[in-house]
Structures are given as structure tokens and as C-alpha cells.
């Protein structure tokens, strides 16, 4: 069960090698989280991540999970919840893709969409139902400011995140009053392996900063978290710019 500050004792991470997810797990373990399930494709990286978290004192299990195989989600994730209550699910898997290539190769674009949206919808609904059955818990969904308004530079990724964001907000409304808390996290440019080699955007942040924001959001029982917080104002302005003006911006 969560403590008086809303922090979890048990955590299920969907996207077990995500740098943001692992930074969040480390921060929560330092507070009070004791049991962690890292769900992802079996790999040395997943096992290494589990080993690092065990070194911090947590009881860590790895779970073979594939976002692109929705038919397996109910069985795979159901086994985790059958082990006992899960206080928090962190949905953190995602694929950035390569915009130029993905425009040329629709199959690659579809992979981005299926990972970021279809896979997340499937896993999110499975976890939401299990959280609702146990009567408590948080579902934290890693969205992105890219979903606020599609940009020429990454509209395939941005559109998939826009769908995920809308889904998570609607799911939060559907679960209101059930004891299940849904929190949408909208980071800006995060310096990770996924963004290595890309030009750094203004207001760039780190996995550790996102983890800090997630913890604060859990304590406050927030529904939406921006990282950094100033992006809320920036995106409010960009969202309402006339399309002709927005199109000419170097974004």
C-alpha cells in the first residue's frame, strides 16, 4: 500500500530499460518502494537494470513484455498482479523513430504508432482494470510535450504521443472515484540514449529531473505534470498560434 505521502511500496515498470523509468524507480526505492517488476523484452540490458535496482535494496523481478504484442498483455501483466497488489504502474515504453526515414517507409512509421499508442492503450487498459479490481493504485503515463501540437520535425512521433495523452486523460476521467489515480507526465526534450545525437532543444531536462517531478506529482496526487514546469506556459502559447505562424517557427 502507499504511504501517507502517496508513494508506492510496489512498482510495475512497463519499459524496464527506459532511463526515465529507471531514474524514477531509483528515486522511489530511496523513499520506500521495496518490490519492483521491470517489464520489457528479455535482454542483457533488462537484467543489468534489475541488478542495479537490487543493489539499492529492492526485490526486483523481470517480466517478458512486448508492447507490440497486445494479445499477450492480459496474460503477462495478469501474472504480475496475481503476485499481490501493485501500488503503481509506470507506463514508460516508447519509440522516437526517425522522422525522415519513417516518412519514406510507412511500415517504420506504423511501428512507432503501434508502440507508442496501440501498445500503450492495450497495456494501460489491462493495468487499469487490475488496479481498479484491487481498489487502489496509480497509473503514471509518460507522455510528451510533442503531443501538444504536431511539429513538422517529428509529427509521426508527436501524433502518437497526442493519442496516448488523450487516451490517458480519458482513462483518468473514467477511473475517477474508483481509488485509482492516473497521472500524465509531459516532459520536454530529455537527455537520454534515445535523444543522443539530436540537437538539444530549449528547456532540455534529465531523467533525474523527470523522476523528481513524478515523485512530487504522486505526493500531490496531480493529474498532469510538466517537466520542466515552465513548459506549461510555453506550450499554452504555441498551441494557440495561428497555423501559418506556427509553420514558420524553427521547431
From TrEMBL:
PROSITE patterns membership: ADH_SHORT
GO MF terms held by the record: oxidoreductase activity
InterPro entries the UniProt entry points to: NAD(P)-bd_dom_sf (IPR036291), Sc_DH/Rdtase_CS (IPR020904), SDR_fam (IPR002347)
Keyword field contains Oxidoreductase: yes
Keywords for this protein: Oxidoreductase
Keyword match Transmembrane helix: no
EC number of this enzyme: 1.1.1.333
PANTHER family hit by this protein: 5-KETO-D-GLUCONATE 5-REDUCTASE, DECAPRENYLPHOSPHORYL-2-KETO-BETA-D-ERYTHRO-PENTOSE REDUCTASE
Family: Belongs to the short-chain dehydrogenases/reductases (SDR) family.
Protein name: Decaprenylphospho-beta-D-erythro-pentofuranosid-2-ulose 2-reductase
Organism: Streptomyces tibetensis
Amino acid at each position: 500500500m502507499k504511504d501517507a505521502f502517496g508513494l508506492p511500496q510496489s512498482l510495475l515498470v512497463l519499459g524496464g530499460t527506459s532511463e526515465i523509468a529507471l531514474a524514477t524507480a531509483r528515486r522511489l526505492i530511496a523513499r520506500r518502494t521495496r518490490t519492483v517488476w521491470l517489464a520489457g523484452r528479455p535482454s542483457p540490458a533488462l537484467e543489468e537494470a534489475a541488478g542495479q535496482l537490487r543493489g539499492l535494496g529492492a526485490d526486483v523481478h523481470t517480466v517478458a513484455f512486448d508492447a507490440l504484442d497486445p494479445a499477450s498483455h492480459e496474460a503477462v501483466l495478469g501474472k504480475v498482479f496475481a503476485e499481490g497488489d501493485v501500488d503503481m504502474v509506470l507506463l514508460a515504453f516508447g519509440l522516437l523513430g526517425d522522422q525522415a526515414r519513417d516518412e519514406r517507409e510507412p511500415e517504420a512509421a506504423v511501428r512507432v504508432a503501434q508502440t507508442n499508442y496501440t501498445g500503450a492503450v492495450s497495456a494501460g487498459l489491462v493495468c487499469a482494470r487490475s488496479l481498479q479490481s484491487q481498489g487502489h493504485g496509480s497509473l503514471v503515463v509518460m507522455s510528451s510535450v510533442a503531443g501538444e501540437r504536431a511539429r513538422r520535425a517529428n509529427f509521426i512521433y508527436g501524433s502518437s504521443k497526442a493519442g496516448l495523452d488523450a487516451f490517458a486523460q480519458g482513462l483518468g476521467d473514467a477511473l475517477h472515484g474508483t481509488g485509482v489515480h492516473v497521472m500524465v507526465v509531459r516532459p520536454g526534450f530529455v537527455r537520454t540514449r534515445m535523444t543522443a545525437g539530436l540537437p538539444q532543444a530549449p528547456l532540455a531536462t534529465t531523467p533525474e529531473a523527470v523522476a523528481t517531478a513524478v515523485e512530487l506529482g504522486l505526493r500531490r496526487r496531480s493529474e498532469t505534470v510538466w517537466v520542466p514546469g515552465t513548459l506549461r506556459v510555453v506550450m499554452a502559447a504555441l498551441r494557440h498560434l495561428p497555423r501559418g505562424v506556427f509553420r514558420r517557427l524553427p521547431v
